[in-house]
Amino acid sequence: MSAINDFLYNVLVGINSVIGNYGVSIIVFTLLIRMICLPFDYKSRKGMRKMSAIQPKLNELQRKYGNDKQKFQQKQAELMRKEGYNPLSGCLPLLLTWPIMIAMFSAMRVIANEQLAMQAFRYLAGEEQIVTAAERFLWVKNIWMTDSFFTPVVPTAQALNQLTADVWQKAYNLLSEGQVQAIAQNIALVSENALDFGASTYQASVQSIITALGQVPAYVAAVEPVKGWEGLNFFLFSVTLYQQFNGILLLPILAGVSQVLQYKFNPAMQDQNQNAANGQAQAQGMGNFMKYFFPILSVFWCLTSNAAFAVYWVASTLIVWIQSVLITKILEKKDKEKAQAVAGEGSVK
């Protein structure tokens, strides 16, 4: 799995080296991954469509042999063989894409964490441009932070404390000699601890970094909250409004809206709804639950993740919807051609 993670990491970094903006690069990266997964999506969609077609026959068998479980299973197996349907054809292709998707998330997370560590180092190196053009995306000032009024434009001490030793070490290795000297000088002014990112010493080094950042006026200003708006209780959350906030909450909202639209207009979702309508009331209830659960969950994920993930989530939802529409048109055309061929054979006879 590590090899796939490293490969996708290098792909995303390579795309950004050409485009020069991580927001656009993530969209291109997402499109590339969805194209790789397209054959699996097609197989899954074909299986779901086949299931939708034979569902009425399965319901009839259920009504006829529902009291005889063994007989029902026998007739169900006969129907599956007759129709040429494999029960795994709907879900197995999608399961095969999961390693790719997990590796993609991992690659994006590694890059995001490295960039946060690098931004902390840039402050300590005394650089003027901390967040570069590569990290800005539309209204979002720093794509590695959440698109929200309640998130500052740069990483907080809490975010920096969550970074692991290997992330700090990799970001440190990318620094120039001049940056290393400036950082060492700033660290020495507030702490005697040297920068050592070994397993047993990196936490002390991180605390030294955070302490030193507290002495950098530009960083202190970047994480300064609006007076009177610190630690406000909002439903189940405690939020702080920052003077230099990172975004306007638009990506989390778009994530929820795109999920609603996908559920309403995605042909794959409509087939699932039809199967539920032809099935039991319990299935219908689950379908209605998922209809509202996923949009809410999408908003929550994007509110608790960086804007890079939100860009991926919105882009992926829209791309999957477009792919589903195109796949449905292709399958409908094939079904129509098959029906015409069968009708033609019947007329000849």
Write structural notes for this entry:
The protein is mostly helical and 349 residues long. The chain folds into two domains: 2-147 and 248-348, no CATH class; 157-222, no CATH class. It has 13 helices and two strands. A two-stranded antiparallel ribbon has the order 1-2. The protein is elongated. The termini are far apart.
Largest sheet: 2 strands, antiparallel
Q: How are the strands of the largest sheet arranged?
A: 1-2
User: Terminal Cα separation, in Å?
Assistant: 57 Å
Mean pLDDT: 81
Which range best describes the helical content: under 10%, 10-25%, 25-40%, 40-55%, 55-70% or over 70%? over 70%
Identify low-pLDDT runs.
none
Radius of gyration: 26 Å
Structural class: mainly alpha
Report the sheet-strand fraction: under 5%
Coarse morphology = elongated
What series of H and E elements makes up the topology? HHHHHHHHHEEHHHH
Q: How many DSSP helices?
A: 13
- How many β strands by DSSP? 2
Indicate the multimeric state: single chain
Total domain modules: 2
Write a concise keyword list for the protein shown above.
349 residues, two-stranded antiparallel ribbon, single chain, mainly alpha
Concise overview:
This protein has 349 residues and is mainly alpha-helical. It has helices at residues 2-19, 22-65, 69-83, 92-124, 157-161, 165-173, 177-190, 202-213, 217-222, 250-265, 267-278, 281-303, 307-348, and strands at 232-234, 237-239.
Write the layout of secondary structure elements.
Blueprint: H1 2-19, H2 22-65, H3 69-83, H4 92-124, H5 157-161, H6 165-173, H7 177-190, H8 202-213, H9 217-222, E1 232-234, E2 237-239, H10 250-265, H11 267-278, H12 281-303, H13 307-348
Antiparallel strand pairs: 1-2
